[in-house]
């Protein structure tokens, strides 16, 4: 069970504190996901925004997949999101069912599933006694939620999410 308290506050100090618990690379991914959500007119950062940022920003994340064609297919789906694919998500809250929908005290500007994925990334880092979560930590946490938008995109791009999860569990701790 993931710790749901690591990233559940609602004030600005939480955002500052979060930044101190992420690698520079992952902090850049989070910033890119926030910008993408704003640009796309979405109310919240969701797991697909986070996946998009990870794929664009981190070579280790891209290396976790089955080669360049698979990564290109994933990026193609994610880019199409703002022009058609994903419009069924526009204006809705991503609730994968992995955690109860939080009506109060949630993370402003984040879907419940995205906030849970950030918690999962932090938990994964803490499990290896690291103080900062990295990009592979977040990718593993995204894959952990089979009902998230990120996993929906992965499946549509024919990614074997069980195989990806096993591969990520075999990665050397601390890589990002």
Automatic annotation (TrEMBL):
The keyword Hydrolase applies. One of its GO terms (biological process) is proteolysis. It comes from the Bacteria. Keywords: Hydrolase, Protease. GO terms for molecular function: peptidase activity. This is Clp protease N-terminal domain-containing protein. It comes from Streptomyces bugieae.
């Amino acid at each position: 069970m993931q710790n749901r308290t690591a990233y559940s506050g609602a004030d600005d100090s939480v955002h500052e504190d979060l930044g101190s618990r992420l690698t520079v690379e992952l902090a850049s991914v989070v910033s890119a996901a926030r910008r993408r959500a704003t640009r796309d007119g979405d109310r919240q950062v969701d797991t697909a925004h986070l996946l998009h940022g990870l794929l664009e920003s981190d070579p280790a994340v891209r290396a976790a997949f089955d080669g360049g064609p698979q990564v290109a297919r994933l990026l193609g789906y994610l880019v199409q999101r703002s022009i058609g694919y994903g419009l069924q998500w526009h204006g809705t809250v991503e609730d994968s069912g992995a955690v109860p929908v939080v009506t109060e005290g949630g993370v402003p500007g984040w879907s419940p599933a995205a906030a849970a994925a950030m918690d999962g990334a932090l938990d994964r880092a803490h499990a290896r006694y690291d103080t900062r979560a990295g990009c592979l930590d977040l990718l593993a946490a995204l894959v952990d939620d089979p009902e998230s938008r990120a996993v929906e995109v992965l499946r549509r791009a024919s990614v074997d999410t069980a195989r990806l999860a096993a591969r990520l569990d075999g990665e050397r701790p601390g890589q990002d």
